[in-house]
Amino acid sequence: MTTLTPISYEGRVAKLRAGMQRANLKALVVSRAASIYYTAGCYFHPFRPGAAVIIPLEGDVMIVARAVDLGRLPYETWIREIRPWVGWQTNSLPETSFEKAVVDALRSAKCTSGRIGIEIGMDQEPGRLAPGTLDNLLAGPEFVDASKILDHVMMRKEPQEILLLKKAAAIADVGARAALDSIRPGMRETEVAGAAEFAMRQAGAEWYMAGTTVASGFRAAYAFAGEPVPTDNLLQRGDVVHLDFTPVYKLYLGDHIAMAVLGEPNREQAELAKVVESITEEYLDKFRVGAVVADIDRFARQAKTKAGFGQYDCWINGHGMGLAPRTPPYFTPNDKTVLEADMVLELVLQIHPPKIGGMALEFAVHITDSGPVPLNKTPRRLHVVAG
Questions:
Q1: So what's the pLDDT on residue 185?
Q2: What is the pLDDT of residue 190?
Q3: 78 near 108, Cβ under 8 Å?
Q4: Could you write out the DSSP letters of every residue in 350-378?
């Protein structure tokens, strides 16, 4: 059994401070969910603004958080200075805003001039603060977007992170197996999702970052997969079933798509599955040290076009993996990131023709010096479930 070495959060802060020095930043305000997890090592609701980690170039790191989190944070984070805020007067806390609490923390760290880095964010995971809002409260500093400092540091994984991602991938595999074993004609999509989630909980899942997707029949063919939630739609023979799992283990995410058909696939379904399976294996082989993300993405889009399915191309063909559903790099035509050893990426291959039923595969890939290593072990093929 592998023993997990404790993560050095002080070491992570040291890496970030090196980036801050290069960017001439006096402080860094961390506000994206993945960045907070990375620096604080504790849970915050990923879709609710109101938390930030303040990292001065010199001095103690602080957390600004909602008052509702005040009780648990001393037990869950290494950071000792916790600054709560609440938007109305209470018996124990004065009224203040999130932005004002951040500014007060910067003042206490004597960061009232110079350049202050904030996370304005990417389109995939927006930041929680806007420069204009902070300017109104603290006029001295220049607020600049420092998202790339966090992106650069988080992209290459520490050994402990890879072990946690392997565990999260294994839990997603458990969910896939449970879902495939449970599928029967007449079942509701919600029942299949329930079987998968129960199994993943038993395997160690603590929560689900983006929910569990079970989409059958016409719902499996939504453009770009559509990320539909399970419904009471009844599974029928001949249905393609799109399965997507996002279990979280100790803040690290598993993200895995498996594809199934209820009963023997028809000719069009079988042919599409072969296309997806074949392109996926060729695509996986491109995930190598030194490869450029945009070039890998171009291969996937051209391969779909060559197979006759270019018009059903996916909006994104992969993304980084770690502490959020999507992190840099993004497999798009514009991302020039060069792959390095110990990146963990998510390979996504989706084709969704409306009249056939969408087919998709998604799994985590560890980039190593000797080649790509998939973390998910679910067979990369169309799973035929007895109808």
A1: 95
A2: 97
A3: no
A4: EE--TTT--EEEEEEEEEETTEEEES--S
Say how many Å lie between the first and final Cα of the chain, rounded.
40
Instruction: Say which CATH class 159-385 falls into.
Output: alpha beta
Q: Which of 377, 312, 30, 381 is nearest to 171 (CA)?
A: 377
In this prediction, residue 314 carries a pLDDT of 79
Read off the pLDDT of residues 63-99 as tens digits, 9 standing for 90 and up: 999 999 999 999 999 999 999 999 889 988 999 999 9
Find the Cα–Cα–Cα–Cα dihedral 143, 70, 153, 30, rounded to 10°.
-10
Displacement of CA 203 from its chain's centroid (Å): 20
In the chain, CATH 3.90.230.10 sits at 159-385
The answer to whether 342 and 162 are in contact (CB under 8 A) is: yes
Q: Give the C-alpha separation, 349 to 314, whole Å.
A: 7
Homologous superfamily of domain range 9-154: Creatinase/prolidase N-terminal domain (3.40.350.10)
Residue intervals of the chain classified under CATH 3.40.350.10 are: 9-154
The per-residue pLDDT for 1 is: 40
| 345, 318 Cβ separation under 8 angstroms | yes
CB 6 within 8 A of CB 161: no
Quote the crossing angle between the two packed helices 9-22 and 147-155, to the nearest 10°. 130
- CA torsion angle 62 148 163 166 (round to 10): 130
pLDDT at 40: 97
Cα–Cα dist 326/226, whole Å: 15
Listed as ranges, residues in the chain with pLDDT below 70 are: 1-4, 121-128, 223-225, 387
The neighbouring-strand residues paired with 345 are 320, 365
H-run or E-run covering 295: helix 293-306
* Residue 97 burial (10 A CB sphere; 0-12, 13-18, 19+): middle
